[in-house]
Structures are given as C-alpha cells and as structure tokens.
Amino acid sequence: MLPLKEKDRPIVRALLDAGCCARCILRFCCVSLQSAYRQNYEDLTCELQSFADTRETSISGDSAEKEQQDVPPCKKIRLDIEKGGDEDGKDVKESAEKTESNICVVCLGVLQHFCDKDFAKKIAETVMAEKYEFHSLVLSVSLPAQLSVREHSAWLLVKKEMREKTMCLGKDDVIQVKEAYKWILHSLVSQELGVPALAKSLFEVSVGFKHPETDGDCHFLAATCSGCFKPAKNKQSVFTRMAVVKALEKITEESFRRKFSCPPKRPTTLCALQEIQCLHVPVFVAGRYNKFSRTLPQTPWVIDGERRMESSVEELITAPLLSAFQAEGFNFSSSGRPFAVELLNPHKAQFSTEEVHQLQETINKSSSKIRVRDLQIVTREAVGHMKEGEEEKTKSYCALIWTQRPIEENDIEFLNDIKDLNIAQKTPLRVLHRRPLAVRQRVIHTMSAQYRDSHHFCLQLRTQAGTYIKEFVHGDFGRTRPNLCDLMKTETDILELDVESVDVDWPPVIPEPESQKGRSSLPEHQHKDTPPSQEDIQCHPLGSLF
Amino acid sequence: MEDTEIRGAPSVIDRYFTKWYKTDLKGKPCEDHCVLQHSNRICVITLAETHPLLQKGKAIKSISYQISSACSRLENKVSGKSKRGGQFLTELAPLCRITSTDGEEFTIFSCVRGRLLEVNADILTRPNLLLEKPSTEGYIAIILPKFEESKSITEGLLTRTEYEDVVSKRAAMKGLRNHYWYITMQCTDAWEGGRAKWHTCNILEPKKKKVQKGELSTRRQFLYL
C-alpha cells in the first residue's frame, strides 16, 4: 500500500495526465517513506494508477462528489509491456497516445530506468575495473540543469491544482530527484560492491547524466534573468545548475508560464549516462629527510625542457610512494627537512605501520643521496600545522667565515654576546628572479664564534626559520642590514655552510627498529649545542650549497 | 681577479656574476658602466672603476633619481613574482643624475633592457657608499631582463677582457692626444680666430670650441685642455 492520502488524489491525477512517472508523483506528494521508492517500477505504477482511478468512498461534501463524477478517467501510463484491451474505450486517443513516449517529463527517465539492479551492476563493474581499495563509498549524482526547470513547471501545475482545492504545500516539502534517486540506488550499489554507501566517505563514485535534447530548455531564463548568468571562463555552458536554480527563484509564475509550457513537453529520448567517475580523497604522507649530496636539488631542475641535474629529493621520495599508493599525482611541500606529500587519487590508501616502514626502506635503498625517516600517514590538518609552524621554528647552522682585515681571537668574542638580533633582509638577488621583492624581518637568536686564523673563523648561528644566512654574512650588496660586515667592520664572506639541525617537533618521531640503528645520520643531529667536528666540515667541500 | 688573489677564494661577485661593460656612455669620455649579470639573469648596474666619479679627488654633491618631472626612479614599485609595475627600461634610459662638488653632472644609464626592480636608496643618504664600494653596496639599480632576452642583452656590452682592452688603448691615446691636437691646430685658421676642432681619443663627437682672435698666445695653451 502506498502512503497516499485522499488529498493527494487530485495531484496524482494531474501529474499522471501531464506525463509524470510514478516515482516523481510520489515525490510531489511528499512521500518520504524510502521503501515506497524502492518498489519495483511496474508494481508502483499499477498501484498508483489504481489509486488515481479509485472513486472517493467517503462523503466529504457535495462539491467534492460532484467534481469527482465529472472527472474523466486519467490517461494510462504506458508501460513497456503492451496491454491488450482498453478500459477507456477511447480508441482513437489511445492509438495517438501509443506513439507518445512514456519518458517522465520531469526526471527524463532517471527515476524510471536508472535505478534498477542492472544499472547498479553497471556501476559496480565500472568501479571494480578501476581497481580501487575502499571500505565504503559516497554516491554523488549530477543531473542536467534543465531538470530544475521541468521540476519547477510540474510544481506550478501542482500548486495550481492545490489552489483550487484550497490546499497548501511548500516547495521544500517536495522530495528532490537526487534524494529519491539515492534512496533507491544506495542499497543496490551497496549490495553489488559489498560496502556501505554513506553520506561521507573517503571514496566517491560520481554518476553523471546528460540530456542534449532538452538542453535548450534553460535558455529562456537568460532573457528574463540575465543577471544570474555570467559567463565563467572555465565552464563550457553558462547554464550551470546553480545559475538555473537562482534564476528560477527569481522568475515570477507568469513570466515562467509564458515562456515554458506547463506541464513540460514530453521528451522523445531518455536521459543518457555521461560518465561514472571514481575519486579517492588524497592521502598525506609526511616524514623527515637528510640530504647527503650537495648537488642534489630539491625539485627537478629543468631549464628550457632540458634537465640540468639528475634526479631530485622530490622525485626520490615520491616515486616509490606513487607506485605503492597507486596515486595519479602528487603535491610535494617541505619546510626544510620535514616534508609532506599529498598523493592525489590514490587507488590504494590503507597501509599498516609495518607497510609504511617498508616503504621508507624502499626509498632509502633506492639512493644513497638521501635518507628518509619518520615516514607516516598524516591528516590534512597536520600538514597545515607544518606550514604554520614555519614562522616559529628555528634552525641552527655552522658557517666558515672569511674576513678581509686580519683578526685576532678577541675580535670575535663580542659575537657570542649578541642575542636576538633583528635584521631586515630584502629578497636576496640570487632568488629575486623567482620570489617577490619584499623586506623580511628575521631574528638571529644566538651566535658562537670559534677562531681559526687571522682571516677565518667558524660561526655557529641559531636563527629564525627563513633567514638567509649567506646574505647575512656577505650583506648582499647591502640589502641585508645589519649584516656581519657591519658588525665586524670589515668585508666578510661565507666559505662553507652546514645545516646543523631543524628545531621542530613535527612530524612525530618514529623510533627505528633495532636493525636500523648503527647507521648514523650526519651531519644533522638533534643536539643543537654540539659543534660539528673537524671531519664534518672538511668532508663537505666548497660546492653547490652556494 | 684581484678579489680571488687577496682572499684565496672567489668573492660573491666572482661566484655568481659575470661582469659586462659599456664604455663612454652617450659619447662622454670614460663614463663607463659595469653591469653585473647574475647567473639567474638579474642585472646590477654599477659604475665601472674608470668612471670619472671614481677617480681621485671627486666628491659627490647630490644624487637624484628624479629623471624628469613625471618620472622618479625612486617611485618604482614592483609586486608579485612577475614583478609587475616595474618601469620598463631600454639601454639608454637614464637611472639617476649625480652632481659632483666641482659642478660636473653625470647621468647613469640602464645599459640593459628590462624591468626596473629597485634603485639603491642608500646612496642618497650615504653618497660615500658609491665612491667607496661602487661594485657592491654602492650599486645604482637592479634590473630584470625579459626571460626571452636574457642572452641577447649582453650583445651590446663588452666583456671584461674587451673592456680592459679599451682602457689600455685610452692610456695610449692620451699620449697621442696632445700631438693630434697640435696637428689639427696647424690645419685650421684657429690662430686667426674662428672654430677649432679637437677630437677625443675615441673619435666620437668632435668637441668644438670657439676661439677668439689672439686668444691663443701659444699652441701649448690648448694642449692642456
């Protein structure tokens, strides 16, 4: 039994006459019982038909009775199965009707033919073919914009019908096509794929429909509500769903009825499936890396299509990740040594801690130039924190300084006493071609100087992250002030620079299993105050760190 | 390179920059500029060591970036990575005017085509920077040539070797100049008055000087011009 009431009967009749399908009729009657929609389409249609034909039994007033007797029997909804024999007895009209299509004028067939088990099977097959790993899914549907126009037209029809019966029904009470569609399809797709269909999930299956025959239905709106339709650069059609809905809110009933038939014209073709797309939310993988080659760039170095340097940190880390996660792309970001990779549309997203550790080993084995540690899957928010923390964290360096004038040991002692020196750095010339011109305020927290000879000393610095150390030392044409030349009152230059440590707690440290200990990570270590040994400095020759 | 000899290692300029030169800008003798071209194609405009301003005894009276009533290089503002808004300069666009205490006026020119990124405001408050450290803190301007033109901008400029060539020729010509003038004098009627011509060592715009009858008491007088 359908949960329809007496008051619904005139609506049902009017919509049947207009050419609406059974499920759309239920929607306009505000039936929110999901199981009603899931019923077999033919059965549903029959039930509805009989409901419409039933005469009122209750005596609700003379006018009602009288009206009822005058109402001619409704047009039958044509079913696929040819029915023999005519109950109306109107042969001529019937034969004319036979040539009319039975495609719903409102949903264009979406709620008629695209929500059965066969279609669910088709979706399932497409999804399986793409070989994703998932434990649930969210189904999203995109319908052509003209469905809103037709819906509006049918709604006006219903409203008119109700006005005559002095009833009221809000447009918001009407069940949306998408909602009804999902009520039916969710359980079917769930069954086929064996996973629940939820409102939110990491894996999305989107089903798109198109109906080129009626694309022109929206066009009249452009004339009446031109303000809603602004040509967007990247969209093919101006008639987006949002714009059409907005215009329909604005247009008056009269203007609408003038331009668009009410009820809508019957379509001759069925809605067609445009595409079934699968998308998995990106997975974020973070870690720390150490670089052991001074010639390895962070990102691929390509000039004019020609590769300048073999490989890069980015490629060495992301290549194994891309293949393990079967992702289609990535975004690599790092603030110094901690890094994060966003893997786009991964086909495989679930990894255990051991598996991630294996992945880390694969990366480390692939090249001796870098070493990754603390590799782990993280959330998008955590990556946000990494970027935020950039301003707060500090970095420690050790630099070999050359001075033009001869110096003695006590000439550099004053540097040890300088605390929290504020410096202003204009964008250094060596990066000015790719960074905006700006002045950056930075802080040199502490310094410690070790005398070497009359023209050299070693300077350790702990600075705010983002400080250009080389420019602080040689002054960058006086564009960093104050600089070491100003402090030392002589020209100074930097001969070697080593990163000592990056003082930040993210990503969380993952203790290495026993087998990995033994291979030390030099020159970077967590103890900030230990000066690097002589060997550390000497084994890094002058090179491309400059 | 002198720098390397002193310090035993290449200086910042040696490491990153290539030196290019433009001599006798607008025909003015020895008004030489040095363009420091960074490996990332950014150019720093500086005075070459042979520029008159950098010679002994010169002091700066004033520096102005107001090159016309409508245009001040100080007001140049760029924004964003692509440095939009920067004044676009051609090779002979003036950057600033410098007046020395002995009344001479010099114009510094761009020498390269490109977008002006910044001019050195420090030399306005500390003009000595320009005299003491013309190649570093006393730079004049920073220009970003167009990516497509980064190689062609140096076509009109001299390499360090070519520049040194020009400089040594000048020194040689100096000796010749007096002699040249002498010869010219003999060919003209300058002794009687009229116009006398003398040529600069680079044979560019001939300088003309009006001579009064009887002004020349001896030929030697002109030799010291």
TrEMBL record, chain B:
GO cellular component assignments: dendrite; filopodium tip; growth cone; lamellipodium; nuclear speck
UniProt KW Nucleus keyword: yes
One GO MF term attached to the UniProt entry: actin filament binding
Matches recorded under InterPro entries: Abitram, Single_hybrid_motif
SUPFAM superfamilies named among the record's database cross-references: Single hybrid motif (SSF51230)
Main location: other
Localization annotation: Cell projection, Dendrite; Cell projection, Growth cone; Cell projection, Lamellipodium; Nucleus speckle
GO BP term (any one): dendrite morphogenesis
Keyword annotations: Cell projection, Nucleus
PANTHER family assigned: PROTEIN ABITRAM
Family of the protein in this entry: Belongs to the ABITRAM family.
Name of the protein in its database record: Protein Abitram
Lineage of the species this protein comes from: Eukaryota, Metazoa, Chordata, Craniata, Vertebrata
Record gene name: ABITRAM
